[in-house]
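Self-study notes.
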Amino acid sequence: MLKENKKSFNRLFRFFDTLVVILSLFVAYYIRFGRLPLFFVNQTFEFEIFSFSYVILWLFFSSRFHLYKSMRFSTFFDDTQNIFKANLCCLVIALLPTFFFREAPLSRLFIFYFWGGLTGSLISLRFFIKLSLKYIRLRGYNYRQVVVIGNNGRAKNIVDRLTNSPELGIRVLNSIDYSTNGKCPGFSNVPCMTGGLEDLKVIIENHVVDEVVITLPMKSFYSEIEQIITVCEQVGVEVKIPTDLFSLRLAKSSISNYHDIQVLEFYTSPKMTPQLIIKRGIDVLVSAILLLVLSPILLLIAFLINMTSKGPVLFSQQRIGYNGRNFNCLKFRSMVENAEALKEDLASLNEQEGPVFKMKNDPRVTKVGQFLRKTSMDELPQLFNVLKGEMSLVGPRPPVPGEVSEYELESRRRLSMKPGITCLWQVNGRNSIPFEKWMELDRNYIDNWTLWLDMKILFQTIPAILKGV
């Protein structure tokens, strides 16, 4: 019954959210133009495309950002953050088609009114709902009853949190101790029983039980856990098992489907989320625009390289990309034609620690190459690598195979994200940074990656290039 109520509530919630999106479009249009776009008749094609795309995208991204999951454990800050992310994804993608239709561009004021009003309305709606549910639960309604199985630190932590947060509407009915020492101290005045599976059956038969939370050690109590799940499955009671089964230092965990098989995932690099989809969309759009806008400069650089030194204009070098994939990284040639052959003679003059060759006054660099390197213009052809999907605008710099073969195991983690043209290393001193610090910066980028971090790095790259860092 509770499950059916939850589903009905989620459907109703989704309906109201979608209604708020549509109403926000109408209100913003009225504020900007002084009339209502009734049934979208006689409106510009750009407005119709944007509106239709936004509503469809909202239905998708609102689910992807879990806006309709149980509100018992989500904080208001989490809800606000997820609404902001979902709305931002919808806005960026819904605006993309309008770039190809420029007869009557969308009003920037309309977009500002719509997006600001919609975000504020959705946040306010959730605030009101959370406040109402909190009021209802504190008065003993809309609650769930839970049995916690286990007598350990994890069990105590769960019981303490639930009993100290009555606004969650969760009551701990009993705890069951499966240990053999016969002691059952219980937690936070919650009754404790020692009969194991038989006690669980008695509790289920004589009380309302909505959930069973298992905190037993998986290795020691595997068969007991299997029996508990079987009993709960028979009577239709939900079972929850904390995912902190292992002591993880960096990896995050989540439940997902693996070809119709539920698996527990552990990962450190960002998963394929809507944010990464937007990152790829930005890569394609920005790299295509830059290649088009900068084409005269690219041709001029090619002409200067061709006129001042022998050899091809572009230098293609095998690099290591995402999770160890090989690709040909493009650069404007900034060295003499046989630079790779001369590298062994200069190995003793390497100024960088670790498996990387860096030399401040490298005699192999041409005069044009010195300017290109100082301004980072030698890396402009990598926009083609970005367009092909081999690189991103922002990410750890792609290493050569020889460097990777000398990596410590921890340093290989920098390969768990697509390489980029610019990165934290690029805006924090480049060649003046020791190798270990460089690797640390890349690991920090992967561990803390967000679209906002990418934007910050891109904006910091411009002054870094101008200063010739």
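Second protein, same conventions, sequence then structure:
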Amino acid sequence: MTAADLWFRRFGQRAEATWRLICLPHAGGNAEFFRPWAGALPPSAELLAVQYPGRLDRTGDPQPASLVALAQEIAAASAALSDLPTVIFGHSLGAAIAYEVTRLLDGHQRAPAGLEVSGREAPSRTKQAALPLDDQALLAELRRLSGTDERVFAWPELLALVLATLRSDYQLEQGYRPAAGPPVRCPVLASVGHSDTDVSPVDAGAWTEFTTGRFELLVLPGDHFYLVGQRDEVIAAILRWVTGVAGVSLTPAARTWPGRDGRPPAPAPDAP
């Protein structure tokens, strides 16, 4: 198994892809969160969703010691992928990881073409408040954020796994201290829900300090999980942004044909 097979879940093959969208989920989330996005993207886009350790098919894998260590493993797996322009998207905790992955790849031959940070304040505005870690507090947090399928709450065994995963992710969050360093060089798009009580548009707008490239702020209706109800709007905004700022083409690549010359097969002769 390659590092890419371990870390990324690809929902559908895109032989005509001209660019790649790598998506990092929120605390307690998993790669399946982004499965519905794959069908909403054009054929030119290959979607890879990151599967963190400790969930679904990686239940037995240990969590890295820190958020930066997690980012290092994801960055190494990303750098080993085929050479397509890559845009990195992260939501909430995933946005912090996406930022660290981008910092690690900045200056690399395969540096990201763009970074989108969703539902996350800029590092300069990070709040070091204590996060809930006991079961009842975590359960209340899940309900407050409104990002968990209601069926999970009716399935005790599944709920226990979700709470354990969320606790582990919050421990990563509590230990995370953004390191000082130069801004990233790629364009950055920050997005946030207008009614998000955890991240304000001002907090999200401060990401402009962390790139030397172009910066844009997108505010959409909704709360912290605005991207669930606004999925099509979020994807449309990403597509506008990657073409206008990140320089990505939405035109599918030409198909490769069998044969030494790479040309399509000759048409069959007419029947006599």
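Instructor comment on the second fold: The chain has one domain: 3-128+178-244.
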